[in-house]
Amino acid sequence: MLSSCDCATAANSVLFLRRIGTVALLFILASLSWFVLYKAGETIGFKIPDSLTSHAPRVFFFIPPSPPLPPPSVLKDAAMEDKTVILTTLNEAWAAPSSVIDLFLESFRIGNHTRELLNHLVIIALDEKAFSRCLVVHTHCYALVSEGVDFSKEAYFMTHDYLKMMWTRIDFLKGVLEMGYNFVFTRFIGILSATPRKLASGNFRNFQDADVMWFRDPFPQFYKDADFQIACDHFLGNPEDVENRPNGGFLFVRSNNRSIEFYKFWYTSRETYPNLHDQDVLNNIKYDSFIIDIDLKMRFLDTTYFGGFCEPSKDLNVVCTMHANCCFGLESKLHDLRVVLQDWKIFLSLPPTLKRSLPPSWRVPQNCSLDSLHLYAPPLENVIQENVEQ
Q: What is the DSSP string of 282-346?
């Protein structure tokens, strides 16, 4: 017969073994969960680079949720009371000091009721250097790294990297809508406006890099009943006319079932229209009956308020944004954007009576004229060969 001491020892041994088993089971479950999450991240093309994990807590990574997850802290911290955020993307090509990013932020600081909007701006960095630069110049920074493509350099229009960049953006914005956030999106990445082959032949019809200077709060000019509203290269006078030529460099989207379904449709339509970029696909699907079926309210923004180099706004008394579209080459863009900021500062210095009686207009485009597209001649032979191989 076992003594009471022996029984206690046996009971303790059983309890110890149970605890070991429980710990081992928890470890196995945790390992499996991590493995599943890691493989899921690889599947959708996003990963956390090792070099970024050492940053302070302001580092945020986003994996588009399906189904939606709780919103990342960076979006929550930047959101307005109605859960609206301002989003822009940045890569290394335009993140250098005294480059376009500094002009972009300066426009907010000198604009009319735009400085406070910086509190709601999230810069989505597409590479490590852009993220590091963002931390220097802004508060809300977001590291979005896509596996299998280099987003750090200027991407030639319609190359593989360009298309990957554009469709990653559409998928990302769909995820933001699914998390319940409205957004103003202003594209801000280094894109060369045409492939070298198209430049050599003169066969190009669309210019896709888009950098927007903000001079007035745009929200009063947005349509109250619209789900999706977008700036135009050319505005025909009717905001509901689908014949307007939209430009995806500036848009405002409200989060609801209609806009989410539209972004899903837009993203999947890349398979229906292979080798087209997001804006050309939009120009095709805007006629689709699906838009009517989901009752999406689409509006096109008037260039009077949301002008660009393609179609400049005429009156600085009412302009909200200035869009550096229809421009090729970083140096040309920087030159003309600096002129835009100078024009705005001159306008601000005028007495109110002179502003109203003789509304000044922009002195641009200058270097961003169509002639500059033909004069710009960097050594492109290697890039031509690369595009042929792709």
A: HHHHTTSHHHHHTT--EEE--TTTEEESSS--S-TTT--EEE--S--SHHHHHHHHHHHHHHHHH
The domains of the chain are located at: 61-383
Class of domain 61-383: alpha beta
* Rounded CA Rg of the chain: 25
Q: Give the other-Cβ count within 10 Å of 161's Cβ.
A: 17
Residue ranges of alpha helices (H) inside the chain are: 4-43, 73-78, 100-110, 128-137, 160-178, 196-201, 257-272, 278-285, 289-293, 330-349, 352-357, 370-375, 381-389
Q: Which residues pair with 182 in a beta bridge?
A: 84
What type of residue is 46?
Answer: F
Return d(Cα 289, Cα 142) in angstroms, integer. 36
Q: What is the pLDDT of residues 176-228, one digit of tens each?
A: 999 999 999 996 554 444 343 443 343 333 333 448 999 999 999 999 999 99
Q: Are 184 and 173 within 8 A, CB to CB?
A: no
Kindly report the pTM of this predicted structure.
0.73
